[in-house]
## 1
Amino acid sequence: MQTFAFVLREQLARPSLRLHVNSCRACRRSDAEEAAKRDGSWDVYDAVEQLTIPSDLEAAFADNKAAGQNFVAFSTSNKKQLLWYVASAKRPETRKKRIAQIVHAAAQNKNPLA
């Protein structure tokens, strides 16, 4: 699943999809882009796209070596799905719960979301 900011950035990168600055749609798009940059949602999922494992998940894998080894062996799409699952948690408790769920399933060489 791609975020609005990710899709918008991809569209703005393509010259064929750029709109004229004076058009109303371009102004709205520009405003949305600026708002996403201000609130941090513009690049919040870049780490997921780059398959960067967050430090708290990395620490959980350090405690469970088998889970870490199995996670590394997962397909790229599965890793992105699980990293997004962690990154999209809004509350710290939810994030901790999701990390525990991922580590438990990865130790059994399973995707908890499958």
Note: The chain is about 65% helix and 0% strand.
## 2
Amino acid sequence: MTNYCELGEMALWAPVVLQPIGEAAFWNCPSIEAVFIPRTVTHIDDEAFQYCTSLRFLYAPKEIEHFGDAVFQGCGRLLTTVKYKFGDEAFQ
């Protein structure tokens, strides 16, 4: 399990080679405010963005087939409109 939080970026463009976005890949990264996921990513594993407390914006294409458990848990600033696309499991 690799955590990429050390990047310290405010906006994250998930690289194409990051397939899938692994378990806890960006866990507890308070500096991330926006995430842009490319169409090549089809899986986001458990807790990938859990406790990214500053995360407000997320672009995730419709090609994503799987969201793990608690992917966005603790991301209280994330816009609520995103929840409709991903389902409740991603936020628990």
Note: The beta strands are 11-13, 34-36, 43-44, 57-59, 66-67.
## 3
Amino acid sequence: MLNYSEILSAALTLPPHERGELDEVLWESVDEPTDTGDNQPDISAAWRDQIARRSAAYLRGDLTAIPWNQVRDEVRVACLKVNRKGEVCLQARRAGKK
């Protein structure tokens, strides 16, 4: 069986449209009920609702878009700040520091 790093490396060699399809399949798998029988929320429906609300607000002019390059750079910086547990450290971002 492949480990996480091997799967990631292989996935990153896929063409963009296939990576997008893989992303969709993986995301949908997160929304499936677990074997533990817990009542997890419908993540996809919640995201669709959020996307619809934000899209409507953007079209009304209530929100402005942030360029992808800026978002990507901010995420990269945040991902470099990792605490001992391996969780992304966003304290600086939450405190309003950039």
Note: Residues 90-98 have pLDDT under 50 and may be disordered.
## 4
Amino acid sequence: MPNHSLNRLLSSLEECKGRFGRGETHRVEKFENWALVLALISDLAGWTPPEKRDLVKILRAKTSRNEMQYLRLTQKHPRLRRELLRLGSHA
């Protein structure tokens, strides 16, 4: 089920990944792990544009060396937190 919003989000995510330089394999690995998690969120295409923009910010923060910003942003994203808890409770 192609969705223009989802395609734009994926383009943004690819753009983030494309900004990693040589020697930053740890960042690419973190990014790819998140891509697997995002694939499990069934209603991701229905997220609002601000929710998707915030998600991209969270992914950028997660791939940085200091994860404090990632933690702060994740705490402020209720929909992502709810999905992460849902996914974690099925493990």
Note: The radius of gyration is 13 Å.
